[in-house]
Design a protein that fits this description.
This protein is of the alpha+beta class and 130 residues long. Helix content is 28%, strand content 29%. The strands form two sheets. It has a four-stranded mixed beta sheet. It has a two-stranded antiparallel sheet with strand order 1-2. α1 runs parallel beside α3. The longest helix is centred in the middle third of the chain and has 18 residues. The protein starts with a strand and ends with a strand.
């Protein structure tokens, strides 16, 4: 995996502008902050974000992949301010679960998600090298 960073652009914080990767592709459907019983773990944004990452990693594990293989994530959030307020906790959660991998990312603010209590949903693409 190679980070694509134009030489005269500042390095973004928490994500990469682009990723180049070759290998087996894994696509993870949008994950939300519920557990294996489909129960939302909390109404706290950071708690849901942590569960989303844990769910994503569990799906990746089924393909023999881990956080180091994630090349792209697209997140949908229902409350911009909740996301901003939780930023310090999100950074710590990210570091604990994803390490130093910063894939190409985008977050989109949406009016709502299919599961009424869900505040964040993230879909992921991973590539396992050959």
């Amino acid at each position: 995996m190679k980070v694509l960073q134009p030489h005269n652009w500042p390095r973004p914080k928490g994500y990469s502008n682009g990723i180049e990767a070759t290998g087996r592709q894994i696509f993870v459907a949008g994950q939300i902050g519920w557990d294996e019983t489909e129960t939302i773990v909390s109404d706290d944004f950071a708690d849901q974000f942590e569960q989303v990452l844990r769910n994503t990693l569990m799906v990746l594990h089924e393909a023999g992949a881990g956080p180091e293989h994630v090349v792209r994530m697209t997140g949908y959030i229902t409350d911009r301010q909740a996301y901003l307020d939780a930023a310090p906790r999100l950074a710590a959660i990210w570091k604990a679960l994803m390490g130093k991998n910063y894939p190409a990312m985008a977050f989109v603010i949406v009016a709502g998600l299919v599961e009424e209590r869900a505040q964040v949903e993230i879909e992921t693409t991973a590539v396992v090298g050959r």
